[in-house]
Structures are given as C-alpha cells and as structure tokens.
Amino acid sequence: MAEPAISSFDVLVIGGGAAGVAAAAELASAGLSVALAEQRPTLGGAYHRQPVGGSARQLRGQRQWLRLLRGLAGAGVEQRLGHVFIGLESDGIAMLDDRAARRIRSIKARALVIAVGAIERVLPRPGWQLDGVMTSGGLQMLLKETGGVPPGDLLIAGSGPLNVAVAADLIRLGRPPVAVIENGNPFARPGAALRLAAHPGLVAEAARHLARLASARVPWLRGSALAAIERRDGRLRATVRMPGGGSRMFAADIVALHDGIRPNAFGLPAETQAQPIVVRAGDCREALGIRAAVADGRHAARQVAAMLAGTVRDGSADRKIGRQRRAQAILHELFRPVDGYGLAALPDDTILCRCEGRTVGDLRLMLAETDAPGLREIKLNGRFGMGLCQGRFCADAVRDMVAAARPAVDGGASGPLSRDRWPLRPASIAALAADDELQEGK
Q1: pLDDT digits (tens, 9 = 90+) for 302-315
Q2: Contacts of 327 (CB under 8 A, 6+ apart)
Q3: Which of 12, 29, 58, 217 is the most exposed, fewest CB within 10 Å of its CB?
Q4: Where in the chain are the domains?
C-alpha cells in the first residue's frame, strides 16, 4: 500500500459555526492557507443551522450569518464539509473522517483552531431516558432544519434563557408548548435584572420572547422543577414540583429538557504554542453565546497568525468578549435554580448514564465500597461515560455525586471520564481500514 496522502495547510479550522467561519476568513485575509472542516453538509453550526434542502424559513440570525458568509467568500478557504475531526496524532497529523467517502483524510497543518461550540447540560431525572424526551437545543435544531414542528404536545423544562427562546420559536411556527417549566425565577432577582439593562440587545430579545409567550398564553412556571417523567397511556406524564410545595401534572408527547450549556471540550487536544499550534475559539473555549463567538473566532485567528509569524501579540481578549462574559454572568444569576432538588434526592433506579443504562443506584453501590474507587475505576468497571456520548451528558453528574460522597476522590477539572483520547469521535472500521487517497483513482 502506498503512503497515505497528506494535505498541507498553514491552518486547519475545526467547526463551521460562527466562530470557525470568522476565524477562517480572518486567517485567510492574513495570507495564510486555510482549510475549514465541518461535520455537517453545510456550514452554520448550532445557532445558524441551515434548513435541509433550503426550504425552511430562518428563525433568527440570518443577517449576521450572511455577513459572515460574505467575509468567507473569495477568501480562498478550502471547505471540507461532511468531515468529522477525530483527533490529532502524536506526529501532529490531524485526522478527519470523510463520512461521504467513508475514508480518513490526513491534514498536516502548522496550527489548528478548534471551534466546536457548546454542549447542553441536562440534569438526570427519573424518566429522562424515555422515548419522546429530547434536549431543547435538539428541538431547536429540528425546527431550524425543517421549519416544522414534530406532532403532538410539547413541554419545555429545566433552566435557562434557551428554553424561553425555543418556546418563542414554537409559537412563531404555530405550535405553542403546553408550558415552560423554569427552575429559576428571574423576576425574583431585580438586582440582576437591573444590571442586564447595560445589555439592551439581550433585553430587547428577552422582551420579544416573553411577549410571544404572553400573547399565546403559554404558562411560564418560574421556581418550579420537573421532578419526574413517566409514560402512561401512550403519553408522557411530567410531574412538576411547584414553589412552596405541591405538584402539577402535565401530559405531553415530547418533553424538551435544558439546564444550561458548557464548553464542548470533551477529549479535545490541549492548547499549545508548539507546532502544531492548537487554540480554541468560541463556545468550546468559553460558553459566552453567539454575540461573543464571532469576536472570539477573530481573536483566536489573530493569535495564531502572530504565533506563526514569530511575533508576540497581546493575549487579552476582545472587549466584546469581556462584555458578553459579564452579560452571561448576569443571565446565570437570573436563571440560577431556586429549587433544592439535586442529585442526592434522585431515586436509585434513575438512569444516570443513558448510553450504558447505568443507574444512580449502581454508582451509589460503588461509592459505598470500603476502598473508594477513583473516577477511572468508576468509568472502566462501572461503565459510566463509556457509551457513544463518552460522558458528554453524564460526566458532570457522576463527578458531582462522587465529590459529594467521597470528597477525597480527585476528579480534576473534567476528570478521567472525559480525558483526551483518540479517536475523538466514533469512526467506522471501514474508514480506518480503507485505502488512502492515492488509491481512489486506481
């Protein structure tokens, strides 16, 4: 077999959302050769997700996205769509899984800008693994891709401004949710609300969303918590714990959950200034939302260009990024959960790791052993974080439960449940075993 063909670029940008596109255009304008890899067949990321077949209407952000695309047009950036980044080999070769061709592509780059966005946090609840339960972000992606709403009644629950935005999107599409269950109570924190006035764009956006909820008479139950979900008579029945005691039951066909976001940093190569230089940009570096993503992508690009040129650049972040950091801190305070319901109150039969079907009780049994298991042992022997998502949904909860039960167990910032690894994402054996690019025409 011939030696694998390796494409060479000055910079490889991973992720075709706002931060990645902004970074790629900025790098190309500096005279660098740039490849932009995106796992989906179109650019856009989560916020600017493009409709399937181009038939659905855009819900938000179209003008900003068109401005980003104009900056990319004619820049000479090689776009590799449908290419999934699966890791950086020890010799500095970036590996991409070309899903259409079912082959692994190799890229030698002097620098990598990783801009793979954020990931939703979803707290475990009894019944969260049932069919018909999804994330609010997943529901929003479905709305953006298809322009339609799945059949049946929808209930939105958890905490954070995304839930209100998704509810507003559903109303615009003619399908209001039966209710929005909010664990926080922004109206009970007037100090934070006053500080938000320094960010008029966020205030205006929130006002539009809340006005839609009010006009559609969608209940926004603040200070409430979705305690459990069960399937009864072919529908999902959600038990909601209300402020001051008592509960309400809601029937729905789809329940969308969301408890905040965090950087999608699971298993990514560490940042380094040694070639290949690796930097992160956008929400995978710090989850600050779409307003900061473009500025952070350009900031990362300027850092990389300076390092490749052997010059020193001021490492301080753009003022826009600092401003959005302050805005996100205010939102975090506004939507901070007021309900005391936590992991300690979960029943033993609550699924904790959905991929492997491991329960809260399984973890409690391991933690009750005489010799305290470390997180690595919990992963390897208990199978927590060993499934397809590699801990993206269960790692935080597992680590929190371990820390509460055994404070001496070292979990680190992300813990062994999600340490760096290769391949980063699942890749087919056929792709790994396929002949290299030089063999395609033979």
Answers
A1: 999 999 998 876 65
A2: 196, 199, 202, 289, 291
A3: 217
A4: 6-119+263-310, 122-259, 343-412
